[in-house]
Amino acid sequence: MSSRTAFITGGAQGIGQGISTTLGAQGFAVAVVDLNLDTAQATAESITAAGGTALAVQADVTDTASVQAAVKTVTAELGPIEIAVNNAGWDDFMKFVDTTEEFWDRVLDVNFKGMLRVCHAVVPGMSERGFGRVINIGSDAGRVGSSLEAVYSGAKGGTIAFTKTLAREVAGKGVTANTVCPGPTDTPMLRAFAEKSGDGAKVLAGMTRGVPMRRLAEPADIAAAVAFFASDATGYITGQTLSVSGGLTMA
């Protein structure tokens, strides 16, 4: 069990909700940071109802001032941020030639620059205190590519590379940085994207067939890897990229 403070972006639903709930059950004081405050509050309430400590905070990771305000609020309410989980993300399925520069900007702003904003806000404090865990949620799309997700794959590939470099820079400060790469995960967002194809069941079945374990990941599967990297016991593990994909990606 841990009493450390965890700051989880996109923490209200899907993979983020799984992470928030798991860390809350393990004793972390959880800041459920999300653009949707109502959903964040529902997740935080479920954690506190189970005996944990949680705070819902509204923040837009595409806005530096919003991120900084969220960090200030969490620090005041729960204490210094010791665990940062950059989970907030957004994508849409389409061929690269059909994308627009506006689409590129949104994907990069949410998935890549959002992570940068959070790290820039919390890593200096972690370094000063001599302890920190940065866990960035990448994607197997960033390791091997993914059809209809070219820009997203690039953003997640950048996440992996950035995390390794950050890990090198803060290795002597008691701070680790690692990336967790989910494979296809059964979330409302994935199902919504699949439905846009016109035959969501067929798309999801195809994804499932590609996984050696013959099932999509559940948010709790991803959360288990995040909890591992968040623990005090993993202080000698940094700069690593861990796929949680039922064997879809092996490296």
What can you tell me about this protein's structure?
This protein is an alpha/beta fold and 251 residues long. The chain folds into two domains: 5-182 and 218-242, 3-Layer(aba) Sandwich (Rossmann fold); 186-216, no CATH class. It is 49% helix and 16% strand. It contains nine helices and seven strands; from the N terminus they run E-H-E-H-E-H-E-H-E-H-H-E-H-H-H-E. The protein has helices at 14-25, 37-49, 64-78, 101-129, 141-144, 150-170, 188-195, 200-209, 219-230, and strands at 5-9, 29-34, 53-58, 81-86, 132-137, 175-182, 241-244. Helix 1 packs parallel to helix 2 (37-49), helix 1 (14-25) packs across helix 9 and helix 7 (188-195) packs across helix 8. The longest helix is centred in the middle third of the chain and has 29 residues, at 101-129. The protein is globular and about 50 Å long. The protein starts with a strand and ends in a 7-residue tail after the last strand.
Compact description:
With 251 residues, the chain is α/β, with parallel strands linked by helices. 49% of the residues lie in helices and 16% in strands. The protein has 2 domains: 203 residues, NAD(P)-binding Rossmann-like Domain (Rossmann fold), CATH 3.40.50.720; 31 residues, no CATH class.
Strand count, sense and barrel status of the largest sheet are:
7 strands, parallel
- As an assembly, this protein is single chain
CATH architecture of the largest domain: 3-Layer(aba) Sandwich
**SSE class:** alpha/beta
How many distinct domains?
A: 2
List the helices and strands and how they pair.
Elements (H helix, E strand, L loop, with lengths): L4 E5 L4 H12 L3 E6 L2 H13 L3 E6 L5 H15 L2 E6 L14 H29 L2 E6 L3 H4 L5 H21 L4 E8 L5 H8 L4 H10 L9 H12 L10 E4 L7
Parallel strand pairs: 1-2, 1-4, 2-3, 4-5, 5-6, 6-7
Helix pairs in contact: 1-2, 1-9, 3-4, 4-6, 7-8
